[in-house]
Write a structure and sequence with these properties.
Immunoglobulin-like, seven-stranded mixed sheet, 296 residues, 39% strand, mainly beta, five-stranded mixed sheet
């Protein structure tokens, strides 16, 4: 349904957040910002209408719209006056919704307030002009350069000693990032092979939330080893990056099965490999089973 929007513009407001499906990727910049996992983009109260590009990637296709951020109506703005914090000549972060109020003289009624809602995944940088009045008389304008960084850092990337989901040896894992990152390692899960479905019985497990990961281990570099065991073991690790502005990346995850002692034979693979005419690194794992008892 999201992709069936025929108009070139999409509207969003405090009362009408933008809902991007989680299996899509999005970017609020034409070429500078990385794509992030789809989510609902909420607006705080907003009195500054503007346009920005919206790119949505689905599979190998990229769709582009112009996103129009509408003004909040007066009744909505009056609902949450406590969300705005005035500041003088410096930009200050106001609250989790990233709502800002710009004023050179917050104690004076002469300066008109301006509320700007900055979206998650956006880098906002613009010179803002604010009208100044004495009663009903227009005196002039104040200008201020405003920069707010809510762009999301790239998610961490795991570098593994194995290229396969299965490994017959201990797996060494490295993780590095220009930013600080947080990680959590699940308890190793002992697996049992199900002959009926020719696969391991793997329990379903939910991915941790950003808050749970944010309370995990904090570091800038990581080297970890997933050892062998007398039985097959599933290992899982999750990580997020945090930049200097406090923005959090999407969640990166890695999982692998280390099975050093169980060997698998599948003669059907022989036909597949003959057709591919490619090197076949048979090691007795479920990914690369031996083709015969003689091979084992």
């Amino acid at each position: 349904a999201f992709l069936n929007q025929n108009q070139p513009f999409i509207r969003a407001s405090a009362d009408n957040p933008l809902k991007i499906p989680s299996d899509f990727l999005y970017s609020l910049d034409d070429d500078r910002l990385a794509y992030a996992k789809g989510r609902t983009l909420f607006l705080a109260e907003n009195t500054y209408e503007r346009y920005l590009p919206l790119l949505v990637a689905v599979d190998d296709q990229v769709y582009r719209w112009m996103l129009f951020l509408e003004k909040s109506d007066e009744s909505s703005t009056e609902k949450k006056p406590s969300e705005a914090r005035a500041f003088s000549t410096k930009l200050s972060l106001s609250n989790p919704d990233f709502l800002f109020r710009l004023s050179d003289r917050p104690e004076s009624p002469l300066v008109q307030s301006l509320f700007i809602s900055v979206l998650e995944g956006e880098f906002f940088s613009k010179r803002i002009s604010i009208d100044v009045y004495d009663g009903n008389e227009f005196i002039g304008s104040l200008e201020k350069m405003l920069s707010v960084n809510r762009s999301l850092p790239k998610k961490p990337e795991f570098i593994s000693s194995t290229k396969s989901f299965y490994s017959r040896e201990a797996v060494k894992l490295k993780l590095s990032h220009n930013e600080t990152f947080f990680y959590l390692v699940d308890e190793p899960e002992i697996l049992h092979f199900d002959d009926k479905i020719a696969s391991y019985q793997i329990a379903e497990k939910k991915e941790p939330t950003l808050a749970e990961l944010r309370s995990g281990y904090k570091t800038k570099g990581l080297e970890i080893e997933f050892p062998t065991h007398s039985e097959a073991v599933l290992y899982r690790i999750y990580a997020i990056a945090e930049d200097s502005e406090g923005n959090l990346s999407d969640i990166a995850s890695y999982e692998c099965i280390v099975d050093a002692n169980q060997y698998y034979i599948d003669p059907r693979k022989k036909t597949e490999q003959s057709a591919k005419n490619a090197f076949y690194p048979a090691d007795g794992s479920p990914d690369f089973p031996f083709l015969s008892l003689e091979d084992a």
